[in-house]
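In this supplementary section we document a worked example of the pipeline. Step one takes a protein sequence of length 166 as its only input; no multiple sequence alignment statistics are reported here. Step two produces a three-dimensional model, which step three serialises into structure tokens for compact storage. The input and output of this example are shown verbatim.
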Amino acid sequence: MNRQRTLAVVMAVVGFGAVVAGIYQELLHVAPGYDGSITTGWGGRLNHEEYLLARLGGVGVVGTLAALRWKYAAALPVAVGGVEIGYSLVAVSHYVREPGLYTTVQTFDGTTRLVLGAEPFLLVAGGLLFLGAGVVAWGTHGERAATVRAFTDAGREQHLAGFRDE
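The serialised model returned by step three reads:
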């Protein structure tokens, strides 16, 4: 039982690490062998969405810790994992439709090819780890409930046996 509880916390912390590492990576890169650069409008600082993703990762860790005590708190890391994965899919789908990933794109000085960076992969990995942490944390309560139920059933039988002796 303690291994599953520890596993849930470790998965949440590693998921948080993946999210934080992911938001510091780039979403798109120019493919090797092509010329060009990608210019961002914020000069390298994180935007509000990336701060939100990091804060949500922290909420997911706290939710996993709370789920060790309260079963229904396991919904929090599951929800955080869904948001992290959803954000990545929306961001990637935007670039799949607009300039075209992994295809040759015409620019003002020639052609180039855009490829995905590490950010969406790390965010999806973090989201999956949060989903897993929530499921594992939810599952720890089944074992604990069975142990408590067996303990109370044994106590009830012993108590009833004492009444039968009199």
